[in-house]
Amino acid sequence: MTDMPDGPETGPQRRTTRAGEGGAPVSGVLTIVLAVIAVVAGFLILRAISDDDGESSSGGDGGTSSVPVDSTAPGGSTPLDTTTTTTTAPPLVTTGAQVQVANASNVNGAAAGMTRALEAVGFTMGDPTNRSEAFGQAETTVIYYNAANPQALAVAESVGRSVGGVTSISELTVPAPTESGEADGDVLLMLGIDKAGKTLEELNPSTTVAAPGVTAPAVSGSSVPTATTG
């Protein structure tokens, strides 16, 4: 016989793992959370790889050619304008108004030489003349036009272009600044020192002066005529 009493043991017993409130063990819930995190992370990684593949394929050899980018623009994102613009000068207007050249320089025969040169490229020319005493000697060439003639301004502008550019084109005054006080035409070119004695080729070194549909002939008059008038 022993001294221990019969019946259930009253000493300390081992405690079993308790289930959580949801009925699943705590370790099971943690496992589920980790699995969900792993699935989400895997989806994000696959999406990032797909985006990288799409960008690289669009810029590869098989894609469309890239547009030149101006690296000097902010962010370097402005496409360069590769369009080439060609500017063509409008044709000369040589008809509709008669042109007279008056010598306002100190070069003898300059008006006569310029008259022949402008006539060679299609302008209708009057007789060359001299400036009036009141007008005086001119350093720069000016042009006057008769506003009563609707074609006179266009012809005056074309004359200005033909002689290398004239900055002063204004309406003709009465009396005209010629020695007779009249103009033999509706456009009056007062030839100043800046253009007197020069050919159209010399006044237009980079262009060829020609009337519409007319091939520009060689401009004569490289030597200054000795006639006093014009």
Report on the structure:
- With 230 residues, the protein is of the alpha/beta class.
- The protein has a domain at 99-203: Alpha-Beta Plaits.
- It is 26% helix and 10% strand.
- The chain is built from four helices and seven strands, in the order αβββαββαββα.
- Strands 4-3-7-5-6 form a five-stranded mixed sheet, covered by helices on one side.
- Helix 2 links the parallel strand 3 (99-103) and strand 4.
- It is rod-shaped, with a radius of gyration of 48 Å.
- Residues 211-229 have low confidence and may be disordered.
CATH architecture of the domain at 99-203: 2-Layer Sandwich
Which value, in Å, is the CA radius of gyration?
48 Å
Give the structural class.
Answer: alpha/beta
Average pLDDT, rounded to a whole number, is 77
| Unreliable segments of 5+ consecutive residues | 211-229
Outline type? rod-shaped
How would you write the strand order of the largest sheet?
4-3-7-5-6
Distance N terminus to C terminus? 163 Å
Strand/helix succession: HEEEHEEHEEH
- What is the CATH first-level class name of the domain at 99-203? Alpha Beta
Number of strands: 7
Q: State the helix count.
A: 4
The name of the CATH topology of the domain at 99-203 is: Alpha-Beta Plaits
Into which percent range does the helicity of residues fall? 25-40%
Largest sheet: 5 strands, mixed
- Note the beta-strand portion: 5-15%
